[in-house]
Design goal:
The chain has helices spanning 89-105, 109-135, and strands spanning 3-8, 13-19, 21-26, 29-33, 40-44, 47-53, 56-62, 65-70, 73-78, 81-83. It is α+β, with helices and mostly antiparallel strands. The chain folds into two domains: 3-84, F0F1 ATP synthase delta/epsilon subunit, N-terminal (ATP Synthase, domain 1, Sandwich), CATH 2.60.15; 87-135, Single alpha-helices involved in coiled-coils or other helix-helix interfaces. A hairpin with a 4-residue loop joins β1 (3-8) and β2.
Amino acid sequence: MPIRLEIVTAERTVLSDDVDMVNVPAIGGRMGILPRHEPVLTMLVPGEMTIVKRGERIPFAVSGGFLEVLPDRVTILADTAERADEIDEARAEQARRRAEEALRERKSAEEVAAAEAQLRRALVRLRVARMRRDRGQRHISE
């Protein structure tokens, strides 16, 4: 029995599908959601999100947002969310370098905080893109 998953950003609906499991980077730690999960409302932090559908693991990069879990559906309102196949690894690597350079310049506290957030997002995007490249989309049984 699958659970309905909706992943939405301000720009688009990233995914609307029935899935077997959702694993997200929640503010209190990683969280796995299966059908008939107890209701939960929590914040998401930047990190890798994985969904499982018919034994296939599908990675996403999220940069924060909110998660609502009801027994029959999961709604993710994400700041940004990208499937691994949507991430341009070269652009993510450039963003990582720019963020690291901004951190080395050590300007105001606000600029440091912004650069740290950009670096976290770039690192998440790189990890997710490399998951696709290095392993492809593996099945749970592997």
